[in-house]
Every structure is written in structure tokens, then in C-alpha cells.
Write a structure and sequence with these properties.
The complex is a heterodimer of chains A (210) and B (274).
Chain A: E1 6-8, H1 12-37, H2 44-57, H3 59-66, H4 68-79, H5 83-96, H6 111-135, H7 142-172, E2 187-189, H8 190-196, H9 198-206
Antiparallel strand pairs in A: 1-2
Chain B: E1 5-10, H1 19-27, E2 54-62, E3 65-73, H2 82-86, E4 92-94, E5 100-102, H3 112-116, E6 123-124, E7 131-132, H4 138-146, H5 156-160, E8 166-170, H6 171-188, E9 193-195, E10 208-212, H7 229-263
Parallel strand pairs in B: 1-10
Antiparallel strand pairs in B: 1-8, 2-3, 4-5, 6-7, 9-10
The chains are: A mainly alpha (210), B alpha+beta (274).
The structure holds protoporphyrin IX containing FE and iron/sulfur cluster (2 copies).
Chain lengths: 210, 274
């Protein structure tokens, strides 16, 4: 695979947004988890949590401003589900250990990536909404503030579970690992595109883009 | 030291002299809260990080006459306390004596106690970033018990009260007095009741008890005090389930990683896909 050809997948703005979001998320978990687990940590972490809450938010307007098309492609795709996405998810546990066969051709985003996107979008909205209620608790009825905590915690648990899978697939898993440079250089190997995103690959072929 | 203590405010005897608030400030070395004069008799609207106890004063018009109702408001030292359940660092503790104590070194000022208290008692101090509330003069109470219930060591407010409206002693004794006073009050006040004496609610009563001539709501207390329902969902369901979910994700990924390493699996390129 020395002469591997690469195809363009993400704009540099999407890449910047992804990593800003990723670092913010990790910092939010690291600064929030001690409270969740009941570990006493310096008070400063509560302020750090709020700082990263803001940097966690910024990538969304940034993407909309800088690469509206890329942003729309992602969000639209996350909500358009068809049979092949569910078929993908059905065999995904086997795919995880490299035993899946006959996976139907996938879109630009496969069923797993769509599920990741949906959970991430819903999770982020939940975390931001409850987080702001907790931050500005004086402005909300106490009952609302009280319920924000269990919801914020549930959101965190789901997002952390998702991110653990997401990280493994992008840096650990032998088959999907090649996708990683999509989020660094914005390109993926042509062979990867063909194998994992057949419908996208065919589209590119049709349009004579590769 | 397993003896349980309690304080009893006999509301009918209270003359609202506010000696207890002053005694509290002195013993606890608390500065006066600067409160604007707003024509109200009640000197402090609410507890604060500098005011751990106050006399609530409420005016009610009865047959064209003003009736004043007083209540010594402070931490109730609940049997099961929302603040204790909410505190992530166990800075708040329900002691064997019945006191809900506060360990300033463990406190991180997160304010979870503020929002989960049934009565809105604790306040995080803006400067020190530590939660504050009445601890029933826990240091004095220890001496009180050690010295054979020596009145000298009663909580500062109880010791000061000249009207015998604030009583202090073992819980057993206080419950007895409360019920005796209730029987007396009942003759004059049909709504008379005790408060925090009974333990048949979700906060299981408290070490700060009252005998009230009227319904609790007259004094701004909830008639049916209860723990915030979100607390058990949060602490007993969401948090344990969250830990299991995150743990399961780690296990699944670690398992897959091991299988893929051992079998060399998961490594398919374009060929084995159609
Ligand atoms: C998606 C990323 C986020 C994660 C994983 C996260 C995680 C957490 C966790 C685990 C806690 C501790 C809860 C507990 O004590 O059980 C917490 C607390 C808190 N979070 Fe977040 N959070 C996130 C985003 C946000 C955002 C966007 C905001 C604000 C807009 C926010 C504001 C807060 C506040 C105010 C607290 C209360 C603790 C404190 O005062 O520091 N969080 N978060
Ligand atoms: S009244 Fe509030 S602060 Fe006092 S013990 Fe009960 S829950 Fe805690
Ligand atoms: S402010 Fe202090 S006492 Fe209150 S819940 Fe947080 S750590 Fe516990």
C-alpha cells in the first residue's frame, strides 16, 4: 500500500472544531468526574470546568461560520437513517472483533458513526442545558436545579461510554484505524473509503472526483 | 457518646428579643450582616453565611388585630438530611448526637448542600468558598455531655434565652417536654403541633424541634417536610448506573482489543468486503 491514494474527507475547519471539542470534552470529564465520584479536589477545578464548558461550545458556531456545507452534511447525515445503517449496527459487535461479513455498503457516515453523532449531539445539548442551569442556579427554581444534577450525570456517563468506543475505533481498532488521518490531514486512504464507505466511494467515482 | 441531644423552641414563650441571634454571632465570631432598614421588624430576611440563626417574625391580621408569630429559624439537624446526601465530599455528617456537623477542611464550596436542603439553610460564603450553617455549637455540646449535661456548655443560644423558650437536653427529655407543652397548647390552640419531633417523614424529624401554636406554614415551614425527590434518583440510581455503564464500555473495548491482538483479527482492507 505504498502508493496509496488519498481522498479528501474533512475541511481543516472541521478538523479544528473536532479537536477543540475533543480536548474540551476530556477536560470537562476530568474536572467533573471527581465531583461525581466524591473525590475531594481543589476548588479551582470548578472554575476550570466552566472555562472548558465555553470552549466546548465554540466549535459549533465556528463550523457554521467557516464550513457551513461540511457542518450541514454531518448534521443532516446524523439524522437520516436507513436500513443499511441498522444492518451495520446489527453486525457491529462482530466488526469490533474483526469477524463481520457482508456489511452493506455505507454512506459518507456509517451506521456506527451516525449513532456516535446522534448521541454526541443530544449529549452535548443536554450537558450544555443542564450545565448552564447548574452554573446560574440562582436564576432557576430550586427543583429545576436539583434535577439538573442527575441529568448532567446521566449525560456524562452516556457520553463517556460513547467516547471510549469512539477513541478505540479511531486509534486502536485495526480496521477502522486508517480513518484517523481524516481528522488530522482531512484525508483518508482510497482503499479505506471503498471498504468502509462504499456508497460515498461510488458517488465520488460517479462524479469523477477520484 | 451515643446519647442523642435536641433543642426545642417553645414558640409561645418566645418574646422575639433576638438574644439568641446575638449570642450566636458572639460565640461564632460572626460579623453583623449589613441589612438595609426596610421598615420590617425582622432584622434579617434570611440566613446567610454570616447569620446562622434568626427570629422569623410574621404578622397576621386576626379580627382587625395584628398577631405576631415568632420562630427561631436555623439548621434543623434533620434525621436524614438532604445536605448530607447531596455533599460529594462527606464534609457534612450526621453525628451520633444528632448534630449535622460540617468539616470545613473537606468542604469544596460546591453548594450541593444549599440546593438539597429541605429548608434552604446552608449558604456558601462568597469569600471563603466554604459552606456555613449552624452546627449546634458541636464543640460545646461535646463538653456538655462529657460534664454530665452541665448547663454551662449548652449551645450559646439556648444558654442565653431568658424566656426559657429555647430548651436543650437529651432528645428523650426534649420529646417529653414537647409533648407535654403540646397538650397544654392544644387547649388554647386547636392547630397546635410539634415539629421535627415525629420521625415519620422522609427527613425523619430533626434535632431542632418546635412546639407550635399554629400550623407550620404560618411560620414559613413546610407542613410536610420532605427530602428532595431528585436526591434518591441521583445518588441511588443515576450515579451507580453511570459507573456501571462507563465500566462496561471500558471492559468491552479492552476485550475487543485483546481479541484483535490475539487473533490478528479486525484487519480487513478492501478485499474481504464486497
Ligand atoms: C459534555 C461535557 C461535560 C461533562 C462530561 C460534564 C461533567 C460533569 C460532571 C461529572 C459533573 C459533576 C456532577 C456531580 O457532582 O455528580 C459536572 C458538574 C458541573 N458541570 Fe459539567 N460537564 C460537561 C459540560 C458542562 C457544561 C457545558 C457546563 C456549563 C455550561 C457544565 C457545568 C457544570 C456545573 C456548573 C457543574 C456543577 C459543579 C460545579 O459547580 O463545578 N458542564 N459536570
Ligand atoms: S436543615 Fe438543611 S442544612 Fe440542616 S440538616 Fe437539614 S438538610 Fe442539612
Ligand atoms: S459546599 Fe461544602 S458542605 Fe456543601 S455540599 Fe459542597 S462540599 Fe459539601
Amino acid at each position: 500500500m505504498n502508493n496509496e491514494k488519498y481522498v479528501k474527507r474533512f475541511s481543516k475547519f472541521i478538523v479544528i472544531a473536532h479537536w477543540t471539542n475533543a480536548i474540551s470534552f476530556i477536560m470537562l470529564v476530568l474536572t467533573g468526574l471527581p465531583l461525581f465520584l466524591g473525590v475531594k479536589v481543589p476548588e479551582l477545578l470548578q472554575i476550570v470546568h466552566r472555562v472548558f464548558a465555553v470552549t466546548f461550545l465554540l466549535p459549533t458556531p465556528f463550523m457554521i461560520l467557516m464550513d457551513r456545507q461540511g457542518f450541514m452534511q454531518w448534521t443532516k447525515s446524523a439524522w437520516s437513517w436507513s436500513k443499511r445503517d441498522f444492518q451495520f449496527l446489527a453486525v457491529f459487535p462482530l466488526e469490533l472483533i474483526g469477524k463481520a461479513k457482508n456489511i452493506p455498503k455505507q454512506d459518507f457516515f456509517n451506521g456506527g458513526q451516525k449513532l456516535n453523532s446522534v448521541l454526541t449531539i443530544l449529549g452535548a445539548v443536554t450537558m450544555v442545558a443542564t450545565g448552564f442551569i447548574m452554573w446560574f442556579k440562582e436564576s432557576f427554581p430550586v427543583e429545576v436545579v436539583r434535577w439538573a444534577y442527575p441529568v448532567h450525570d446521566a449525560g456524562m456517563a452516556v457520553m463517556v461510554a460513547v467516547i471510549i468506543g469512539h477513541i478505540y475505533l479511531s486509534v486502536g481498532h485495526p480496521a477502522s484505524r486508517p480513518s484517523f488521518i481524516g481528522m488530522t490531514k482531512g484525508v483518508v486512504p482510497e482503499s479505506y473509503a471503498k471498504a468502509h464507505h462504499g456508497r460515498w466511494y461510488d458517488e465520488l467515482k460517479e462524479k469523477n472526483e477520484i | 457518646m451515643a446519647v442523642e441531644i435536641a433543642m426545642l423552641h417553645d414558640v409561645e414563650k418566645c418574646s422575639a428579643c433576638r438574644g439568641c441571634s446575638v449570642a450566636c454571632k458572639q460565640w461564632k465570631n460572626l460579623p453583623a450582616d449589613k441589612t438595609p432598614f426596610d421598615g420590617d421588624y425582622q432584622s434579617h430576611k434570611d440566613l446567610s453565611s454570616k447569620t446562622y440563626t434568626l427570629i422569623r417574625m410574621k404578622e397576621t391580621m386576626v379580627d382587625d388585630k395584628v398577631r405576631w408569630d415568632f420562630l427561631k429559624f436555623q439548621c434543623m439537624h434533620c434525621g436524614i438530611a438532604g445536605c448530607v446526601l447531596g455533599c460529594p465530599t462527606n464534609a457534612l455528617q450526621k453525628e451520633e448526637t444528632g448534630i449535622v456537623s460540617h468539616d470545613i477542611d473537606k468542604c469544596i464550596g460546591c453548594g450541593y448542600c444549599e440546593i438539597n436542603c429541605t429548608f434552604g439553610v446552608p449558604h456558601v460564603d462568597k469569600e471563603t468558598k466554604k459552606s456555613t450553617k449552624c452546627n449546634l455549637c458541636i464543640d460545646r455540646v461535646e463538653k456538655y455531655i462529657e460534664n454530665g449535661y452541665d448547663r454551662k456548655y449548652m449551645p450559646s443560644c439556648a444558654k442565653t434565652c431568658t424566656a426559657d423558650a429555647i430548651l436543650f437536653g437529651t432528645r428523650e427529655e426534649m420529646v417529653k417536654i414537647a409533648n407535654e407543652r403540646l397538650a397544654v397548647l392544644r387547649e388554647k390552640y386547636p392547630d397546635a403541633c410539634t415539629y421535627n419531633v415525629e420521625t415519620d417523614n422522609s427527613i425523619k424529624g430533626g434535632a431542632m424541634m418546635y412546639v407550635l401554636p399554629y400550623k407550620p406554614s404560618v411560620y414559613g415551614l413546610p407542613d410536610e417536610p420532605q427530602l428532595a425527590p431528585s436526591l434518591s434518583v441521583w445518588k441511588d440510581k443515576i450515579q451507580p448506573a453511570g459507573k456501571i455503564l462507563m465500566g462496561a464500555a471500558v471492559v468491552a473495548v479492552a476485550g475487543a482489543a485483546v481479541v484483535n491482538t490475539v487473533t490478528g483479527g479486525g484487519k480487513h482492507g478492501g478485499d474481504d468486503h464486497e
